[in-house]
User: Fold this.
Amino acid sequence: MGVSIGIDGHTGGRSAPTVVNTAYGKTMFWDGRAPSLEGQAQGPIQNPIEMGKQSYEDIVKRLRAVPGYKDQFEKVFGTDVTLDGMAKAIATYERVAALSGNSKFDKYNVGGELTALSESEKRGMVLFGLRLRGDDEFKPNVTLKKADCTSCHSGSNFTNEQFHNIGVGWNAEKNDFADYGRFVISPIGSKNNAELGAFKTPTVREIEKTGPYMHDGSMKTLEEVVEHYNKGGNPNPALDKDIKKLNLTDAEKADVVAFLKALTGEEVKVALPTLPPGADGKSPNPQAALTPPPLKAAANVFHPGVQR
Assistant:
């Protein structure tokens, strides 16, 4: 199961994008429909698949019945529980706790530790599209940017924050996409066919830990991901112009995967909180929320042929 699991085992049509380094993001969700972390935080809580059928009013009323939350909101925001305060609290946590850094790549590239990366990782770095440090005498003997990763995975957070069709989810027999991606949220009158099946470029920091991969979770391993790009994606009418066959050798593909794993940062340990008692006087167990229930049928709500 590549897609994410919601309430009572319900599943949607997408795999949850990583929360890692979303503090630096310009838009949220695979299709970029939320302009901020605060905007993103307001979506799942009223999504019937993710957290059940409930209104914002229902949620606020329920939290206002918990004295511990009322006290904390008063101390932090000077108000009773509000939707705005809830969104700010969740977004603030993500900006503080969901950060990645000081990876082997950072120790090499910024810290100047020339031995932080192995020879394979250095070759992968060059194939990815990045030059080695000027003071590194190692000769990678591979073509710079042969894997063409930096056309999209650029900058310190390894994402250009743009939307691209890489051929994932295209059904050649039906001549259609399973998920229309960015195209769905574009306003009527501003639809662009180039956005069909296009999704936001995710960061590749911590990518070793954030599988399965792609918006639909259809790829289990980084090796599958690299092979997808190596073959030139899946041809379709809206395929991004930068997606083309790479002709990487098996050794070069392994080097790229090695470099991707070198983007795993230092672990940030976060202890589960003690939640305030509810109206029944009992404190919920946060561990229970991390135990997935039995799965139910998936529903894709990002296709014109599916009723929302």
The chain is about 25% helix and 5% strand. The mean pLDDT is 93. The first strand starts at residue 163 and ends at 164.
